[in-house]
Amino acid sequence: MWNNPKAAPEYQLGWGDKSIVRDGLQKILAWDSERIILSHGELIEGNVHEVLTSAWRNIL
Predict the structure, then answer these.
(1) How far lies 10's CA from each of 13, 14, 15, 33, in Å?
(2) Where are the alpha helices (DSSP H) in the chain?
(3) What backbone phi and psi angles, to 5 degrees, belong to 2?
(4) Beta partners for 44?
């Protein structure tokens, strides 16, 4: 995850109905987020929307 935030492999394998997940992710992306706190990676405090969109691009 360092310098390359993305969904963990277990999430990528178990998404199920992608349209439901996509709807949820769109709601999250609409938030005015200031930072991303990763359990395995650095604190992200800039370009939050772009980083989230990139991290979940396979499902979006």
Answers:
(1) 5, 6, 9, 25
(2) 9-13, 18-30, 48-55
(3) -60, 125
(4) 36
